Amino acid sequence: MPYVKAQKSKAYFKRFQVKFKRRREGKTDYRARNRLINQDKNKYNTPKYRFVARFTNKDIVAQIVHASISGDIVLAAAYAHELPRYGLEVGLTNYAAAYCVGLLLVRRTLKQLEMDADYEGNVEATGEDFTVEPAETRRPFRALLDVGLVKTTTGNRVFGVLKGALDGGIDIPHSEKRFAGFNKDSKQLDPEVHRKYIYGGHVAAYMRTLMEDEPEKYQSHFSEFIKRGIEPDNVEGMYQKVHAAIRANPEAKKLDKAPPKEHKRYNPKKLSYEERKAKLIDRLKALNSAAGADNDSDEED
Amino acid sequence: MPAGHGVRSRTRDSFSRPFRKKGYIPLTTYLRTYKIGDFVDVKVNGAVHKGMPHKFYHGRTGRVWNVTKRAIGVEVNKQVGNRIIRKRIHVRVEHVQPSRCAEEFKMRKVKNDQLKAEAKANGEIISTKRQPEGPKPGFMVEGATLETVTPIPYDVVNDLKGGY
């Protein structure tokens, strides 16, 4: 093998500074996090809430979080996999489902904080830009949108979650520029288009096109929809029912199983001084006996 | 060329970030809260250029007298000539750390209150004052053997090694 010059010497590793762990994992954008968390010092311990929206391949996670030195504290969370409880079983990561998750999370937090009577939000989703009006008794709950590492293009699903939250009744500073249906040329949001997306109109339209042009693809792609008998025309009605169910009972379901008595360990436990000494003695004994056995066998040979 | 006495002169090492700790600042610095009357250490963070104190204050400890949106007002003692002036500076939170100088005092306060409460419950009088360390108690020297040392007669030949 030809001589290959070593690229990374010992000196390289000695000087290497690792990035923060979550940056190495590619999960946290610290520049954005810094700006979201930083609270004015003359507001002392007032929490600054972030409205976190994250998408995985099959799920949506929405949380209301505030930061503390020992770790972030989650006030309330909502997942797309909870939506079957409210009657939505398919299409759990589309724009309409995102809207439902946002709505669910907000109704849940407002109920937790006992503000849900004051702040009904926008009951009938029209797709227009809706901002909460302050009620008489308390000011609206305020959170800041945290999208994570997503590219914030117009019509992104994180803004579906945002719209659900706004219609639920909390105050999140935003602009309508990135909602689905915003027209770049006229610089205006078309509420009709946005409403279509909120009620899964874009999904229904695709279903109709596939049914006409490529029936086999329709069968394979929308098999779960067909299994549950959801037709393109039913889609809007289904989502309206889900919205109503969410508003009726947003409470989180308590887990039935009890928390484990002992916390599960994910890394090996550190040994104490005596344990390490004992381990060393055992190892030396084993080595000595093995060496002794080898000597014996050599002598025999 | 002359030496130059700019604001940040002679700060090459003191303002530089420590080895392998360059780049992003951990977010705890921003999450800490400071109240008026707290003691803080001023330690400049070279990565943040805004709200830096003058190099004199690097390593000083002072009291907080003001809290603003992103910075803290610290009152530091500075000797000017034959007197000490209480200087009030404003410093961004990245250049400030909570000081542990008053920690021992606070813990002692809490413990003393506890002891006094217990003594009151028992009805006895105690003094919680700190006592300075006294002289060590007397002790007998153990395991001493006597060795008598006498001078040896002067030996001319041996002592003048190679010099004669």
UniProtKB/TrEMBL annotation, chain A:
Organism taxonomic ancestry: Eukaryota, Viridiplantae, Streptophyta, Embryophyta, Tracheophyta
Principal subcellular localisation of the protein: cytoplasm
Superkingdom of origin: Eukaryota
General function of this protein: Component of the ribosome, a large ribonucleoprotein complex responsible for the synthesis of proteins in the cell. The small ribosomal subunit (SSU) binds messenger RNAs (mRNAs) and translates the encoded message by selecting cognate aminoacyl-transfer RNA (tRNA) molecules. The large subunit (LSU) contains the ribosomal catalytic site termed the peptidyl transferase center (PTC), which catalyzes the formation of peptide bonds, thereby polymerizing the amino acids delivered by tRNAs into a polypeptide chain.
Family annotation (PANTHER family): 60S RIBOSOMAL PROTEIN L5-LIKE, RIBOSOMAL PROTEIN L5-RELATED
Basic and acidic residues bias spans: 250-261
Subunit relationships: Component of the large ribosomal subunit (LSU).
Region named Disordered: 249-274
Family: Belongs to the universal ribosomal protein uL18 family.
Subcellular location field: Cytoplasm; Nucleus, Nucleolus; Nucleus, Nucleoplasm
GO BP term, pick one: cell division
GO cellular component: cytosolic large ribosomal subunit; nucleolus; nucleoplasm
Keywords attached to this entry: Cytoplasm, Ribonucleoprotein, Ribosomal protein
Matching Pfam families: Ribosomal_L18_c, Ribosomal_L5e
GO molecular function annotation: 5S rRNA binding; structural constituent of ribosome
Span of domain Large ribosomal subunit protein uL18 C-terminal eukaryotes: 235-288
Name assigned to this protein: 60S ribosomal protein L5-1
Automatic annotation (TrEMBL), chain B:
Molecular function GO labels: structural constituent of ribosome
Record bears the keyword Metal-binding: no
Gene Ontology, cellular component aspect: ribonucleoprotein complex; ribosome
Keywords: Ribonucleoprotein, Ribosomal protein
Ribosomal protein as UniProt keyword: yes
Membrane spanning residue stretches: none
Source domain of life: Eukaryota
Gene3D superfamilies: 6.10.250.3260, Ribosomal protein L21
Stored PROSITE patterns: RIBOSOMAL_L21E
SUPFAM superfamilies per the UniProt record, alphabetical: Translation proteins SH3-like domain
Pfam families in the record: Ribosomal_L21e
GO process terms (BP): translation
Family designation: Belongs to the eukaryotic ribosomal protein eL21 family.
UniProt name for this protein: 60S ribosomal protein L21-1
Organism: Hibiscus syriacus (Rose of Sharon)
